[in-house]
Amino acid sequence: MKKIIYILSIALAFVSCKKEVTKDYVTLSGTIINQNSDSLVVAQRGIIKTLKVNADGTFLDTLKVEAGSYILFDGVEQAKLYLKNGYDLKVSIDTKAFDETLKFTGNGSEANNYLAKKGLLSEKIVDYAGILKMDKLSFNKRIESNKEEFLTLLKTTKNLDSTFIKEEEKQVEIITKQLGMMYSEKEAILALKGKASPKFVDYENHAGGLTSLDDLKEKYVYIDLWATWCGPCKAEIPFLKKVEKEYHGKNIEFVSISIDRENAYETWRKMVTDKELTGIQLYAKGDKTFTEAYKVTGIPRFILIDPQGNIVSADAPRPSDSELIDLFKELSI
């Protein structure tokens, strides 16, 4: 009898050992060729975890997550990930061709290889600047074509989680809707051309006193809407200085309007001084009437007004864009 019980105990133990235990964490490992740094960052709304990368480019770590989208950042490049506890993902990347060589194997690889392919497809077919310049019919056709390509990629990828599929379908719809809204905004902005410009009144001038748009009549006015916290705005500063210098003394005024909040007033004054910003430097002091009239939803935004106070372009080329000088030449400024 004891022998039978002993044998049954061994059998039960064997069955218990064979039972698969679901991990409550993600395992991330892999190899990076031509690594950009000695670490990788997994982030969502903030940094979730920093993974150490060895000198030979290998890495291995674990982390607990809520199922969803994350970013893998190597200090220079980044990739979108879909992580779920229980995944055991192996990553391989050559940073010389980051997007093209990004590959995943192991549990969870299907969704992440799909995301890598989606990224490449997006680079290939999505040209936001070009799409927004199309006529309405061409725009609609292009949007539908892009939507179909993304959904085809999703449908032909096997072994995807149903929740993941629903979220991706939702994202395609959101992007399609956002592009439609962007196109409508662009049409509204283009419709402003030739109309009398909305006015700003009594904005604080860094050089002293108050300045209004009416004070600048009889010259072209090139307006830069910016803020001290805006990286792309600050990236335009060297280009704007160069253009201002080239057109100094000509029939044009260069006006930079800070739309910083009032608690950043001193930051604005200091930055104008420290960076030796040229042109007319104004502070809106929380006033939104001018930006709202120009339908501003993002900065930097550049506006060109003619000597009669009419709008030449409500969304003029940036100083870093060679089209700006072409426009100035066309207007004989």
From TrEMBL:
Its main location: other. It is found in: Cell envelope. Keywords: Cytochrome c-type biogenesis, Disulfide bond, Redox-active center. GO terms for molecular function: oxidoreductase activity. The keyword Cytoplasm does not apply. GO terms for cellular component: cell envelope. InterPro entries: Redoxin, Thioredoxin-like_sf, Thioredoxin_domain, Thioredoxin_ResA/DsbE_sf. It comes from the Bacteria. Transmembrane segments: none annotated. Residues 191-333 form the Thioredoxin domain. Pfam families: Redoxin. GO terms for biological process: cytochrome complex assembly. Gene3D superfamilies: Glutaredoxin (3.40.30.10). This is Thioredoxin domain-containing protein. It comes from Flavivirga aquatica. The lineage of its organism: Bacteria, Pseudomonadati, Bacteroidota, Flavobacteriia, Flavobacteriales.
